[in-house]
């Protein structure tokens, strides 16, 4: 199966053909995927070189002219390094763009900490008005990319990862999906962590919600799930642990509840290792998740 990032260039190349407003801005990373598209649209495929602040600034300038810019590089270079430009050139000027990242939290361990970005969603969440998509399958990535580009002039972040669930779900860019129903708690699995969560909760009497759009946070779906499953909520996110606990607390502000945020821990892991080893070290493998979810929710096995 191809990866989410494998889909990025072909999908956006087709969007360049379909929509004259679309323009792609790159910072060297991923340029080879747009060789043919650049021949067809030399004025709408722009490579600024390894200048990530310029990447965002140029995108904002293009948005001011009425174009729909799609900006792409690794998450650490797209969100963290040029954060001031994201805040001011896009946010303060009130113009939109589609930021599409790669490498996620630790997709390329050999690249070291410079190429890891577990705090990207939390950092963007300090700004107003961002929609954030975290697909869990290449087909979902294609759907959400198209959704993002078509979203008028909104500010949208699409977080791509090499990690993937085994099968696609019918995502719509808005709502959480109910994947499993139970009575002893609610587990919200984000993006590519759905499969580990389903394995971890097999036989446990819990409801599992699947989230691929995390901002805006689907408070309605969470409240509805707690009506039958109880108000113990576990969030399992493929980025910084606790990123969405405030959103879950806000959704349940008027009812007694408990929230546990699981995800990437704050301590830096200073060995390269593999993606699976990083997952285990952060307690995101199925065995660790099962223990932590069962202990928190006191979830019995289904009869």
From TrEMBL:
Domain Transketolase-like pyrimidine-binding: 2-168
InterPro entries the record matches: PDH/Transketolase, THDP-binding, Transketo_C/PFOR_II, Transketolase-like_Pyr-bd
Pfam families registered for this protein in UniProt: Transket_pyr (PF02779)
GO molecular function, one term: magnesium ion binding
Name of the protein in question: Transketolase
Biological source species: Streptomyces avermitilis
């Amino acid at each position: 199966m191809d990866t989410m990032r494998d889909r990025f260039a072909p999908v956006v190349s087709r969007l360049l053909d379909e929509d004259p407003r679309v323009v792609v801005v790159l910072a060297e990373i991923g340029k080879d995927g747009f060789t043919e598209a650049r021949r067809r649209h030399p004025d709408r495929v722009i490579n600024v070189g390894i200048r990530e602040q310029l990447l965002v600034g140029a995108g904002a300038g293009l948005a001011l002219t009425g174009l729909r810019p799609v900006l792409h590089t690794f998450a650490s270079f797209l969100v963290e390094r040029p954060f001031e430009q994201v805040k001011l050139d896009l946010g303060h000027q009130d113009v939109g763009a589609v930021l599409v990242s790669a490498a996620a939290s630790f997709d390329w361990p050999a690249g070291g900490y410079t190429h890891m970005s577990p705090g990207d969603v939390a950092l963007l969440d300090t700004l107003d008005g961002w929609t954030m998509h975290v697909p869990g399958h290449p087909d979902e990535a294609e759907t959400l990319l198209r959704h993002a580009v078509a979203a008028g002039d909104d500010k949208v972040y699409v977080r791509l990862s090499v990690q993937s669930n085994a099968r696609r779900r019918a995502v719509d860019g808005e709502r959480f999906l109910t994947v499993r129903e139970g009575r002893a708690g609610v587990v919200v699995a984000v993006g590519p962590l759905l499969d580990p969560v389903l394995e971890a909760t097999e036989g446990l009497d819990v409801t599992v919600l699947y989230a691929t759009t995390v901002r805006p946070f689907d408070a309605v779906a969470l409240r509805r799930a707690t009506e039958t499953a109880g108000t113990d909520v576990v969030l399992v996110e493929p980025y910084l642990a606790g990123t969405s606990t405030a959103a879950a607390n806000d959704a349940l502000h008027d009812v007694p509840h408990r929230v546990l945020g699981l995800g990437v821990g704050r301590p830096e892991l200073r060995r390269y290792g593999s993606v699976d080893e990083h997952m285990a070290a952060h307690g995101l493998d199925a065995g660790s998740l099962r223990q932590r979810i069962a202990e928190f929710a006191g979830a019995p096995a289904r009869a």
